[in-house]
Design brief:
alpha+beta, Archaeosine Trna-guanine Transglycosylase, Chain: A, domain 4, Thrombin, subunit H, seven-stranded mixed barrel, five-stranded mixed β-sheet
């Protein structure tokens, strides 16, 4: 794994679907980087270019990265922590998003395209579990709940609110819980919650659209704030 003279190391990574590619990209960008195993060490500060390619999409998504730390896990084996930077060239990213949106248009069961974001989220309460925003759309969001049980206040019909600070401002999207799935520990399936957005303000709708197209992003590590019930209604 040696960089070409004066240039970054280029790695090609393939994915089966545009959704998988985008999910892994947002997960890594949201965490602030990615960890990869290597058989050779490289100096801290080494530059990488990841070419992310999906089946069905001609263009590649190019992501720049910089090695932050190198850890030797065993003789001849290393783990590189690489800080990701959001794609500078949107051509490949826009092609992936277009394919996702086109697939949604063809699927009559869905009203809006779901974009995988993988954002960590918590409530402003001491007993809050850790949530993961699994996917986001103009119509709502899907949440995974870490832990063995769902909080008692997570019920169908409860008001919900997600807040996230983006590069374009503070996103605040109000909605309502429309379905709940209890966790299944035998299948390692977490508790899941579906939220439908309603009465979005023009500003919130614009920021949500910018987030869905990755034109506006949170600062890594990505984190959102959730509220349910009366707590969701108190923030307007």
């Amino acid at each position: 794994m040696s960089p070409p003279s004066g240039g970054p190391i280029r790695l090609k990574v393939g994915y089966k679907t545009p959704e998988t590619l985008l999910g892994e990209l947002t997960k890594s960008v949201g965490r602030g980087g990615v960890r990869i195993e290597a058989k050779r060490t490289v100096p801290v500060g080494t530059k990488f270019v990841f070419e992310l390619k999906s089946v069905g999409v001609k263009e590649s998504v190019e992501v720049n990265g910089t090695v932050q730390t190198v850890t030797e896990t065993s003789p001849g084996k290393y783990v590189l922590h690489i800080r990701y930077e959001p794609p500078r060239n949107r051509q490949g990213l826009d092609a992936v998003l277009k394919r996702i949106f086109e697939a949604t248009t063809a699927d009559k069961r869905r009203r809006a395209a779901r974009v995988p974001l993988h954002v960590r989220a918590t409530e402003n309460r001491a007993d809050s579990p850790v949530y993961r925003i699994r996917d986001l759309s103009r119509g709502g969001m899907g949440l995974d709940v870490e832990g063995g049980t769902l909080p008692a206040h997570i019920r169908v019909g409860m008001p919900a609110l997600v807040q996230m600070r983006l590069t374009t401002g503070q996103l605040a999207a109000h909605g309502q819980i429309i379905w709940v799935i209890e966790p299944d520990q035998t299948k390692a399936v977490p508790g899941r919650v579906g939220v439908h957005f309603s009465n979005l303000s023009p500003a919130a709708a614009t920021m949500l659209d910018d987030l869905l197209t990755l034109k506006a992003l949170p600062q890594p590590p990505w984190i959102a704030r959730l509220a349910f019930g009366k707590d969701a209604l108190q923030t307007k």
